[in-house]
Backbone:
Protein backbone atom coordinates (compact mmCIF):
# COMPACT_ATOMS: atom_id res chain seq x y z
CA UNK A 1 0.00 0.00 0.00
CA UNK A 2 2.82 2.47 0.74
CA UNK A 3 4.40 1.76 -2.65
CA UNK A 4 1.59 3.46 -4.59
CA UNK A 5 1.83 6.86 -2.77
CA UNK A 6 5.62 6.83 -3.12
CA UNK A 7 5.30 6.06 -6.83
CA UNK A 8 2.80 8.90 -7.31
CA UNK A 9 5.11 11.34 -5.51
CA UNK A 10 8.06 10.27 -7.70
CA UNK A 11 6.00 10.72 -10.88
CA UNK A 12 4.78 14.13 -9.66
CA UNK A 13 8.31 15.33 -8.95
CA UNK A 14 9.49 14.06 -12.34
CA UNK A 15 6.72 15.95 -14.12
CA UNK A 16 7.46 19.10 -12.13
CA UNK A 17 11.09 18.91 -13.23
CA UNK A 18 10.03 18.60 -16.86
CA UNK A 19 7.70 21.56 -16.62
CA UNK A 20 10.46 23.65 -15.06
CA UNK A 21 12.81 22.87 -17.96
CA UNK A 22 10.06 23.72 -20.46
CA UNK A 23 9.33 26.99 -18.65
CA UNK A 24 13.02 27.95 -18.66
CA UNK A 25 13.28 27.21 -22.38
CA UNK A 26 10.19 29.37 -23.03
CA UNK A 27 11.77 32.25 -21.10
CA UNK A 28 14.86 32.11 -23.32
CA UNK A 29 13.01 31.90 -26.63
CA UNK A 30 9.95 33.24 -28.38
CA UNK A 31 9.55 29.69 -29.68
CA UNK A 32 8.52 30.55 -33.25
CA UNK A 33 11.71 29.55 -35.04
CA UNK A 34 12.14 26.47 -32.90
CA UNK A 35 8.61 25.45 -33.88
CA UNK A 36 9.17 26.14 -37.58
CA UNK A 37 12.44 24.22 -37.80
CA UNK A 38 11.65 21.51 -35.30
CA UNK A 39 14.84 22.13 -33.35
CA UNK A 40 16.59 25.11 -31.83
CA UNK A 41 19.25 26.79 -33.94
CA UNK A 42 22.45 28.32 -32.70
CA UNK A 43 21.71 31.70 -31.16
CA UNK A 44 24.18 34.40 -32.13
CA UNK A 45 25.39 36.50 -29.23
CA UNK A 46 24.79 39.93 -30.79
CA UNK A 47 24.10 43.11 -28.85
CA UNK A 48 20.45 44.00 -29.44
CA UNK A 49 18.88 47.45 -29.27
CA UNK A 50 15.09 47.31 -28.91
CA UNK A 51 13.18 50.51 -29.69
CA UNK A 52 9.51 50.68 -28.77
CA UNK A 53 6.78 53.27 -29.30
CA UNK A 54 3.44 54.09 -27.72
CA UNK A 55 1.70 51.50 -29.94
CA UNK A 56 3.89 48.51 -29.12
CA UNK A 57 6.90 47.23 -27.25
CA UNK A 58 9.68 45.10 -28.71
CA UNK A 59 9.81 42.50 -25.95
CA UNK A 60 12.35 40.05 -27.39
CA UNK A 61 14.72 39.76 -30.33
CA UNK A 62 16.73 36.65 -31.17
CA UNK A 63 19.16 35.95 -34.01
CA UNK A 64 19.53 32.26 -34.77
CA UNK A 65 21.46 30.37 -37.41
CA UNK A 66 19.89 27.29 -38.99
CA UNK A 67 22.23 25.55 -41.39
CA UNK A 68 23.68 28.48 -43.41
CA UNK A 69 20.93 31.05 -42.93
CA UNK A 70 20.25 33.57 -40.15
CA UNK A 71 16.81 34.43 -38.85
CA UNK A 72 15.52 37.10 -36.50
CA UNK A 73 12.40 36.53 -34.43
CA UNK A 74 10.77 37.94 -31.35
CA UNK A 75 7.70 39.13 -29.53
CA UNK A 76 5.79 42.42 -29.68
CA UNK A 77 3.75 43.46 -26.65
CA UNK A 78 1.02 46.06 -26.31
CA UNK A 79 2.05 49.65 -25.80
CA UNK A 80 0.28 52.43 -23.94
CA UNK A 81 -2.02 53.01 -26.93
CA UNK A 82 -3.59 50.79 -29.57
CA UNK A 83 -1.21 50.03 -32.45
CA UNK A 84 -2.36 51.72 -35.65
CA UNK A 85 -3.17 49.82 -38.84
CA UNK A 86 -0.02 49.14 -40.81
CA UNK A 87 2.25 49.12 -37.75
CA UNK A 88 5.37 47.09 -38.41
CA UNK A 89 8.85 46.19 -37.17
CA UNK A 90 12.14 47.36 -38.70
CA UNK A 91 15.03 44.93 -38.38
CA UNK A 92 18.51 46.37 -38.94
CA UNK A 93 21.90 44.70 -38.77
CA UNK A 94 24.59 47.24 -37.89
CA UNK A 95 28.13 46.25 -38.88
CA UNK A 96 31.26 46.81 -36.76
CA UNK A 97 31.83 50.20 -38.45
CA UNK A 98 28.39 51.40 -37.27
CA UNK A 99 26.79 51.32 -40.74
CA UNK A 100 23.49 49.63 -41.57
CA UNK A 101 24.49 46.43 -43.37
CA UNK A 102 20.97 44.97 -43.74
CA UNK A 103 17.52 46.39 -43.17
CA UNK A 104 13.96 45.33 -43.73
CA UNK A 105 10.47 46.28 -42.64
CA UNK A 106 8.35 43.29 -41.62
CA UNK A 107 4.86 42.64 -40.33
CA UNK A 108 4.02 40.95 -37.05
CA UNK A 109 1.18 38.52 -36.46
CA UNK A 110 -1.48 38.95 -35.33
CA UNK A 111 -1.45 42.51 -36.64
CA UNK A 112 -3.66 43.61 -33.75
CA UNK A 113 -1.55 43.00 -30.65
CA UNK A 114 -3.60 40.86 -28.23
CA UNK A 115 -4.71 42.38 -24.96
CA UNK A 116 -4.01 39.21 -23.00
CA UNK A 117 -7.60 38.56 -22.02
CA UNK A 118 -7.36 35.13 -23.65
CA UNK A 119 -3.91 34.29 -22.31
CA UNK A 120 -1.86 35.47 -25.33
CA UNK A 121 -0.17 38.79 -24.64
CA UNK A 122 2.08 39.05 -27.69
CA UNK A 123 2.30 39.20 -31.44
CA UNK A 124 5.25 37.50 -33.15
CA UNK A 125 7.62 38.53 -35.91
CA UNK A 126 10.21 36.58 -37.87
CA UNK A 127 12.35 37.19 -40.92
CA UNK A 128 15.29 35.66 -42.74
CA UNK A 129 18.35 37.88 -42.99
CA UNK A 130 20.13 38.38 -46.29
CA UNK A 131 23.38 37.12 -44.75
CA UNK A 132 24.73 35.90 -41.42
CA UNK A 133 25.88 38.99 -39.48
CA UNK A 134 29.64 39.45 -39.40
CA UNK A 135 31.62 39.51 -36.12
CA UNK A 136 31.22 42.81 -34.30
CA UNK A 137 27.73 43.39 -35.69
CA UNK A 138 24.70 44.37 -33.64
CA UNK A 139 20.95 44.21 -34.16
CA UNK A 140 18.40 47.02 -33.92
CA UNK A 141 14.69 46.15 -33.81
CA UNK A 142 12.26 49.08 -33.93
CA UNK A 143 8.49 49.05 -33.54
CA UNK A 144 6.94 51.62 -35.87
CA UNK A 145 3.42 52.74 -35.11
CA UNK A 146 2.93 54.15 -38.60
CA UNK A 147 2.14 52.56 -41.94
CA UNK A 148 4.71 50.37 -43.65
CA UNK A 149 4.18 52.47 -46.80
CA UNK A 150 5.75 55.42 -44.92
CA UNK A 151 8.86 53.42 -43.98
CA UNK A 152 12.11 54.00 -45.90
CA UNK A 153 13.10 50.34 -45.43
CA UNK A 154 9.87 49.07 -47.00
CA UNK A 155 10.00 51.58 -49.86
CA UNK A 156 13.66 50.84 -50.72
CA UNK A 157 13.00 47.08 -50.70
CA UNK A 158 9.96 47.33 -53.00
CA UNK A 159 10.42 45.75 -56.44
CA UNK A 160 10.76 48.18 -59.36
Residues:
Amino acid sequence: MKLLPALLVAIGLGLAGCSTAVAQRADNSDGLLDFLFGQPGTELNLPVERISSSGGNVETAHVRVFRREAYVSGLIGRGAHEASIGSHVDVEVINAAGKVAQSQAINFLPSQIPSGRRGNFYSRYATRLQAIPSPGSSLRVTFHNDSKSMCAFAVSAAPN
